[in-house]
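Record filed here:
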Amino acid sequence: MHPALGLVEFNSVAAGVHACDEMVKVAPVELIDSRPICPGKYISVVGGEVAPVETSVAMGVEIGADSVVDSLLIPNIHEQVFPAILGTSNVSELETLGIIETFSVASGIVAGDVAAKAAAITLIEIRLARGLGGKSFITLSGFIADVEAAVSAGSKAISNEGMLVRDVVIPNPRHDLDTYLL
């Protein structure tokens, strides 16, 4: 979809909306997500070529100033990350289910990107703080060895910063879960 992803998280909705507007005006990027999140924060996610995304994120950080909680630039984003964020992944059934739960939006994206690059899995969703008190989670599926490798790599990438809440691998999940996770 896009070669790069950028994110800025704000502790103020007003500052976040203002900064988001400037982010999309300063460079040719696509606005992927922009909305309030729990608890009273705001995120803006952009995609595009590396240099414009970098410019956009820098503008968001500059305009947001002291309301910026976190920012992120991933120049070589895995192709499954954008559909997983947007909830448009095409997964028809769960083989083995992997879940990585994180303390922040940025760490959720990093964990999902690293997991997708680590093994032949399919990202189902990267849920960014919607109804989660600012936390995020990633769901993925594939063969058990691949899911174990992906969950391990994604979790390891964020655990050193204390951003990992928990991870699990569920072999052969009951088919009823498909209704709620796919």
User: Anything to note?
Assistant: The chain has six helices and eight strands.
